[in-house]
Design a protein that fits this description.
28% of the residues lie in helices and 24% in strands. It is an alpha/beta fold. It has two domains: 3-110 and 262-464, Aminopeptidase (3-Layer(aba) Sandwich), CATH 3.40.630; 112-245, Aminopeptidase i, Domain 2. Strand 7 (147-154) and strand 8 (160-165) form a beta hairpin. The protein binds manganese (II) ion (2 copies). Residues 265, 296, 441 line the site of one manganese (II) ion.
Length: 466
Amino acid sequence: MEKKDKLRESLFKNNKNGWENLALEGKQEIFEFSDEYIKFLNEVKTEREAVKYFKTMLLEHGFKNIDEIASLEKGDKVFYVNREKNIYAIIIGADNIELGLNIVGAHIDSPRLDLKPNPLYQDGQFAYLKTHYYGGIKKYQWTTIPLEIHGVIVKANGEKININIGSADNDPIFTITDLLPHLAMDQMEKKLKDGINGEDLNVLVGSIPYDDKAEAVKLNILNILNEKYGITEIDFNSSELEIVPSFKAKSLGFDKSMVAAYGQDDRVCAFSSMKAILDANKPSRTSVCILADKEEIGSVGNTGMYSQSFDTFISEVLNKLGVNRPNLLQKVFNNSRMLSADVDGALDPIYSNVSEKNNASLLGHGLELNKYTGSRGKSGASDANAEYVAFIRNIFEKENIKYQISELGKVDVGGGGTIAYILANKGIDVIDCGVPVLSMHAPYEVTSKYDIYTAYRGYKAFLNHK
Ligand code: MN
Ligand code: MN
């Protein structure tokens, strides 16, 4: 090697594509891991379904429900399910828990359309369901695509009915109609954000009248639902029904290098975090996996990261270890470290003008670390301390885990946040660390298989770290 090339190699940061120089063996592992991930995505479309799926995985790996255990000791593995929408898993390490926790935390809710409390109505000869969108969506993306209904209806007597219509091959699907271009002159003149009104995101669900009287199509739908689920119209009042895209998760590209699917924000990090804790090798520090709900609407409510339920869970662990005393929880948090496992908007060459290329995350370049999030003047940012960034770098560099440090978009363009700052407020060292995504928050999002597997490896190395 020439002296000048050597200098280049030693001084410049290596920012090569991860697929380059990948051994065949490595590629196989990546593709196998992604196959399992794709299978998971095809079974899980909501936070409740994610909790159910992960709970089964945890039980299969020897984790127990903390509510069913009187006391804990080193090496024990337990989990806690919060209202079917949020789950925490923990492995008690060999070290004193006072030395702190290694936490990986992701969220399992995704942007979608929720049904309104009084959703069913008839207009003309059609029955519709009214929706209220959840999280940041581009409304026009949700018309003229196949949709499914997932969720629960709880009757006044407490009986709970699980709904999942659209995912089985012989299920019907639903859709939201849009105007034909021939008559869309006025609509096409509007700003993109005004092209579709929130109140027009009404899901088409039927067209056969029950009889020749008023609201006969609506009546027919209610009759079908009553026969199948035993519900009446008022039962919608106590339901949580989510309208989600009916697209199958698939490998993307001739080279099958990417995954296209709904809900990868943030189930890509949730899945790789969960796999990481399941495969953690008897970690010496206590390892935790957080899977939170409601991140997309500000982490509020009793299943969101702002709720006290996480503190309560860790307090309960301290109680059951028989070590709890006043302020111990705060001390544990102060000594803890966390990877906030959430996705980042990747540089899209078609829309590269919103990204600053030296500081944008790239697909296929490994785990993305955001030192800070926030928008404009770092407003609302969770900013990891340089010492902690160095600490995480060191773990990844030693284990040969490819990472990139980035921020979301150009300074003045916008920004975003995750659950990171909520844990940082407890005194925990936190950095955002996840998978770059194209078309984030769209009904069909794109990730790189290389990054997915690298995330898993990165989270596992972190949890295993002393
Ligand atoms: Mn997210
Ligand atoms: Mn999001």
